[in-house]
Amino acid sequence: MLAKRILVVSIVASLGLLTAACSDDAEDACEHINEVCASQQGFTKQDCSKSSENYDKLSDAEKEKADKLVDCVMDADTCTAVTACVTAGATTGG
């Protein structure tokens, strides 16, 4: 139960970066997370509509990190795999 809560918190925290990644790709990744994590207890569907506007505010280094995270998330087919993407991105710095 605690592991599931940690998983949900990790995913929700990652959505800020994902919704900041390059426009359509970020929206697709955010929607993908909403789909694969919908069955996780405690997960709340996220609004993915502000991707482009948030991406424009990032530094070049942050944009590169966000783009890599989007690629990983789009390849993930489970909520656990999404969390692994987020965790790897956070610990390696991109």
Would you kindly provide a written description of the structure presented here, covering whatever features stand out?
It is built from five helices and no strands. The chain has 94 residues and is mainly alpha-helical. It has one domain. α1 crosses α5, α2 crosses α4 and α4 packs antiparallel against α5. The protein is globular, with a radius of gyration of 12 Å. The N and C termini lie far apart (29 Å). The mean pLDDT is 74.
List the main descriptive attributes of the protein structure presented here.
94 residues, mainly alpha, 5 helices
What is this entry, summarized?
It contains five helices and no strands.
What is the helix content? over 70%
Give the overall shape.
globular
Number of strands: 0
- Distance between the terminal alpha carbons, to the nearest Å? 29 Å
| Structural class determined from secondary elements | mainly alpha
Element-level helix/strand string: HHHHH
- How much of the sequence lies in strands comes to under 5%
Number of helices: 5
Taking Cα atoms only, what radius of gyration do you get, to the nearest Å?
12 Å
Mean pLDDT: 74
Which oligomerization state do the chains in this entry correspond to? single chain
Number of domains: 1
